[in-house]
């Protein structure tokens, strides 16, 4: 014989567990699945954020590496300009300005007391594929100093489309100032070690 449940006890059970305990268990299971799905979405969002940050960081690292190489190249170019200035001054001191044109055909590395560690030597009409990037070479054909870039993601190539920078010696001349001396040849005023064509980075 089934013992009836007192009405007071039924009301207490209904108030705590509800009239039917089964829906409560179903609701808890649904909440658990919902929490699991939300956690998975959070994980995907975190992964996406980490990937974006890592990509931006890597891009900045490559950019700063390229800027460091640009600075190092400029430092060597400045040293070659100083060596050229000394050669030019010696020519003027000897009183032989007609020896100056030879500077434009000389290998500037011969003026350095110590050549850079990344100077690869002399090449006749060098090709970027035949010289390791990050090195200086002297082009025997054009008499240019050439620096082959190692990091060139942001470099804007010149007219030849190659990832290098070419330098040469340029002699500066000034015409006579007095009209009566216009028939006289222009006088030598300086020597510069400068790029064959302007170069730039994005």
Please give a structural write-up.
This protein is α+β, with helices and mostly antiparallel strands and about 200 residues long. It has one domain (about 45-200). About 40% of the residues lie in helices and about 20% in strands. Strands 1-2-3-5-6 form a 5-stranded mixed beta sheet. A two-stranded antiparallel ribbon has the order 4-7. The longest helix has about 70 residues, at about 20-95. Residues about 10-15 have low confidence and may be disordered.
Main sheet: strands, sense, barrel: 5 strands, mixed
Order of helices and strands: HHEEEEEEE
Strand order of the largest sheet: 1-2-3-5-6
Strand fraction: 15-25%
The total number of structural domains is 1
Q: Count the beta strands.
A: 7
What is the 3D form? elongated
């Amino acid at each position: 014989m089934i013992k009836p449940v007192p009405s007071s006890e039924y009301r207490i059970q209904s108030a705590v567990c509800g009239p039917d305990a089964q829906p409560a268990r179903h609701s808890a299971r649904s909440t658990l699945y919902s929490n699991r799905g939300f956690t998975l979405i959070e994980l995907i969002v975190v992964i996406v954020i980490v990937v974006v940050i890592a990509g931006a960081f890597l891009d900045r690292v490559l950019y700063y590496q390229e800027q460091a190489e640009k600075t190092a190249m400029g430092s060597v170019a400045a040293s070659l300009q100083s060596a050229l200035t000394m050669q030019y001054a010696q020519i003027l001191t000897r009183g032989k300005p007609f020896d100056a044109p030879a500077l434009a055909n000389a290998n500037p590395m011969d003026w350095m007391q110590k050549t850079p560690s990344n100077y690869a030597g002399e090449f006749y009409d060098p090709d970027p594929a035949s010289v390791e990037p990050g090195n200086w070479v002297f082009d025997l054909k054009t008499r240019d100093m050439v620096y082959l870039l190692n990091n060139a993601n942001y470099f804007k190539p010149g007219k030849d489309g190659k990832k290098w920078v070419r330098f040469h010696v340029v002699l500066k001349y000034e015409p006579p100032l007095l009209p009566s001396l216009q028939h006289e040849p222009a006088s030598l005023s300086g020597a510069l070690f400068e790029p064959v064509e302007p170069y730039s980075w994005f």
